[in-house]
Amino acid sequence: MIKHDIVIIGGGPAGMAAAAAAYDSGVKDVVIIDREEKLGGILKQCIHNGFGLHKLGKELTGPEYAAVYEKAVADRGIKVFYETMVTDISEGRTVTAQNSGGILKIEAKAVVLAMGCRERSRGALNIPGTRPAGVYSAGTAQKLINCMGYSVGKRVVILGSGDIGLIMARRMSLQGAKVEAVCEIMPYSGGLTRNIVQCLNDFGIPLYLSTTVAEIHGRERVEGVTVAQVDQNRRVIEETKRYIPCDTLLLSCGLIPENELTSTAGIPLSAVTSGALVDEHRQTEHEGIFACGNVLQVHDLVDYVSDEAEIAGKSAAEYVKGNLHSAVTVKTAAGNGVRYVLPQRVTVPPKEDISLFLRVTQPFGKVRYTVKSGDEVLAAAVRLKAAPGEMEKITVKAERFKNINEEITVSLEEVQ
Fold first, then answer.
1. Which end of the chain is more exposed for a tag (fewer CB within 10 A), N or C?
2. Does residue 235 sit in the same domain as residue 136?
3. CA pseudo-torsion sign 318, 309, 377, 344
């Protein structure tokens, strides 16, 4: 049995930032366990720029952003277990992992979950049709092109307008492929506005909203797809079906936090985010186990992943030092127009200001957010627009939580 103060599971942007923050908070015995041969996670295949504007004040590619934190880990001498898969977290925070050397058992004083997320597969989407070659998740296609040098297709249809799908529409165009269409089953795009402009509009790629792939055609290789508009219940409208010839279908239909390990450890999950239920320290309902990054909630910007990971890393260090004690908490809840609020509970009174993160249920114009506990307004904020693809943050001053003992609700209303 090996003993370490803090074990970070996952070596992507969240894991690296959490490890550096924990180390800087005074706990030097920090280790990272990663299943890949190199740190960086998904950033290694994201060769486009746009990373780091908020966090580092400069525009970097994914590998460049990852390199900043990889250097931070190396400079601090933080030990990394590469090509090592964690299989279990048992009672007492004993982490079981395996690699080519055999089975590892690590007894940790604190654990930070930073396993990231995965894409929904065709099987999860239940798209009718044959099972030919040429159907990829957008992330798989991205890795094949950017990391392995393969060309995945020449005529492409993309289902889903999340950020990965939009970025891959541009990448396929730059690769010399013809992107016939991006289809989105919802009446709005799930991606950032800047990606719609830079990745679709700038390349003349059409975006069809309230539209899905109704059938895949082809025996050995994709020959085409049937697309159709959907009604308000997302059912195919038969008379709108049309055929688009193509040899490749990319699926960009949402990301799912990689929480099998969390679930098997018995840690309660949110039915909305599919991540763990946490407090403002990012501590789960199992004491001493923290979560951050895309394993907790799917972020739109890696800069915010790093911010959240630093909270988790610092909190894990404070827990190890005995400075993070059980305290009275109140729950947070999503009100009108809000899909979820994170953290799901807040210590009262908190030592520092609390930032609440949320996503809205649908696109809105100008809105006013209101944070309330009972009849007391804790904070309010006005935004010129709101969209499900863009995470919102509202900060509440610590002193506003004094004498609060009722559930905290965040809601919105449209304003002129």
1. C
2. yes
3. negative
Q: Are both 400 and 378 inside the same structural domain?
A: yes
Can you read off the two tokens belonging to residue 141? Answer: 């296609």
Segment 76-94 shows an average pLDDT of 95
Note whether 380 and 390 are same-domain residues: yes
Residues 139 and 243 in one domain: yes
Query: For the chain, how many structural domains are there in total?
Result: 3
Q: Which residues are within 8 A (CB) of 254 and not within 5 positions of it... i.e. 6 or more apart?
A: 119, 120, 160, 162, 190
Q: Are the beta carbons of 113 and 313 closer than 8 angstroms? A: no
| 413 pLDDT higher than 80 | yes
Tokens of 169: 């529409």
Residues 290 and 374 in one domain: no
Could you tell me the residue range of the domain that residue 207 belongs to? 121-253
Q: Which of 217, 219, 201, 220 is nearest to 249 (CA)?
A: 217
Task: Estimate to the nearest angstrom the gap between the alpha carbon of 412 and the chain centroid.
Answer: 23
Residue 108 and residue 176 in one domain: no
Check whether residue 218 and residue 341 sit in a common domain. no
- Phi and psi, residue 245, nearest 5°: -65, 135
Q: What is the pLDDT of residue 392?
A: 95
DSSP state of 157: E
Among 229, 253, 277, identify where a domain stops.
253
Which pLDDT tens digit goes with each residue over 277-287?
Answer: 999 999 999 99
| Alpha-helical regions (H) of 321-401 | none
pLDDT tens per residue, range 101-151? 999 999 999 999 999 999 988 777 788 999 999 999 999 999 999 999 999
C-alpha distances (whole Å) from 349 to each of 272, 352, 372, 394, 400 are 26, 9, 15, 17, 9
Q: List pLDDT tens digits, range 20-46.
A: 999 999 999 999 999 999 999 999 999
- Does the pLDDT value for residue 190 go beyond 90? no
pLDDT at 1: 84
403 confidence band (pLDDT: 50, 70, 90)? confident
Neighbours of 221 (CB within 10 A): 12
Note whether 248 and 129 are same-domain residues: yes
CA distance 192 to 292: 21
